[in-house]
Amino acid sequence: MTEFNNFFKSAFSVDNVIFGFDEGDLKVLLINRGAEPYKGMWALPGDLVYPNEDLDSAAGRVLEELTGLRDVYLEQVNAFGAVNRHPLGRVITVAYYSLIKISNYVVTPASFAQQAKWHSLGEVNTLAFDHNEILNACYQRLKQRVRTRPVGFELLPPKFTLTELQHLYEAILETGLDKRNFRKKILSMNLLVDLDETQEGVAHRPAKLYQFAQERYEKLVREGFSFELKESKRKPSSPLPA
Amino acid sequence: MTEFNNFFKSAFSVDNVIFGFDEGDLKVLLINRGAEPYKGMWALPGDLVYPNEDLDSAAGRVLEELTGLRDVYLEQVNAFGAVNRHPLGRVITVAYYSLIKISNYVVTPASFAQQAKWHSLGEVNTLAFDHNEILNACYQRLKQRVRTRPVGFELLPPKFTLTELQHLYEAILETGLDKRNFRKKILSMNLLVDLDETQEGVAHRPAKLYQFAQERYEKLVREGFSFELKESKRKPSSPLPA
DNA sequence: TGGGGTTCATGTAAATAACACGCAAAGTCC
DNA sequence: GGACTTTGCGTGTTATTTACATGAACCCCA
Predict the structure, then answer these.
(1) Which residue from B minimizes the CA distance to A1?
(2) Strands (E), chain A
(3) Would an 8 Å CB–CB cutoff place A3 in contact with chain B?
(4) With 60 as the cut, is the pLDDT of residue B124 above it?
(5) Residue B194, domain extent
(6) Which terminal residue of chain A, N or C, has fewer Cβ atoms less than 10 Å from its own Cβ?
(7) Which CATH number covers residue A213?
(8) Are residues B97 and B15 in the same domain?
(9) Does B34 lie at the interface with A, CB-CB under 8 angstroms?
(10) pLDDT tens digit string along A95-107?
(11) How many domains does chain A have?
(12) Would you say residue B178 lies in a domain?
């Protein structure tokens, strides 16, 4: 057993890629590290896992400490365990991503951060540790999920317009979609409830508001669906912000 | 840093779900544990990760010790870290699955096993640790992969018939497929090379042999494809072995 | 109060992909 | 050489996906 105990010299952490959606693009919540190593650099929020804590709980805790949110969509993606990924010892990390409604709350930097801030996915620079790699893996996973589960909705406010929903898909999939085909497809899934309300205060014809049908939503999350739409030939999504 | 070091009391392992395909059904390679805990029970092959070893390397090592094979399809699935999943301490495990050509080699039980043996997926009973859960997660992942990457081929011998290929898909997807549609679809992918050879010694019309086109294969592994065929109405796969 | 600006909402025809289906040919076995 | 088994193809039918344009609703401002 002595030999066995030699192995118990490592630790593990969770890192959480927190996605939000705002102003038409996809964002990640990053923290500015308040402690060494990598002090002052941007990083994914994460923490060592407590001895009596499950991985999922740890990921949920990190999220809650930072945002105050519970009961949020949270999915484990992968473990990262390169030998030297952490300068202070052998630490493997388990990556999670979560989807939150960005408008729902105020970010309160946790103890381990000086600052927490949303970054557009396209504007993320070099992060601490191997966090760029982790971020990328989580983003790829999200991209894939969006095509087979209706998880996109987790990112939207309770009431939304079809155009907002389309912009969300376009941002995640990095593509442009045909409006009519998008609507036809999404409406045919019986996933949306027409609220008989419209936007107010917009300087143009107001759009109808929808919410998603909870039961149907859960069914589709469980069973999966297939959302495949070809990139629109006519209106490729602009690579530049307006 | 003292506090930090309190965390370094845990270990991590890899467990490897090794899939093979033979006699028309999907198999997993299990070991009979030669040491406590769970001595004598069937389990997934796995091992603690050495202090200077990457996760992927560890998974590859486990596989090689058991089968002698290198350069095999290997994919990480998930980490499992329930607090009490290991009776001797906090050990989280990272699950991998690999796909091998079952006929290629002889199983040689590694040091940690008394015995290694192929089990049909349907005949797996209670395993050590949380290995049933892990096995299931890996199987689900494989099922999903098969629909978007041509990984199925990793399980077949270098030369195979279309019928064998179809049986493989049916076994993994647990479904029955229409022969003609299956052929049409798979041939239209330009993935197969007709070897101009036929089976020998079979008591019926011999089938043509194919191999898969390496380049095209790699391209499709990278880019993905979509293999969706509806379950055949006429010949649902029999739930019972012949 | 009406004209300009902007976004919303919608339907159809053409092309493509998926589906169900049956029969002749190529071998082995006896 | 006749019976048996499995292979290997092609086609009509149906469902899905694609491309595409115009009038309607609302705000703002002159």
Answers:
(1) B88
(2) 11-22, 25-33, 42-43, 46-48, 73-80, 91-99, 113-120, 192-198, 208-212
(3) no
(4) yes
(5) 153-223
(6) C
(7) 1.10.10.10
(8) yes
(9) no
(10) 999 999 987 777 7
(11) 2
(12) yes
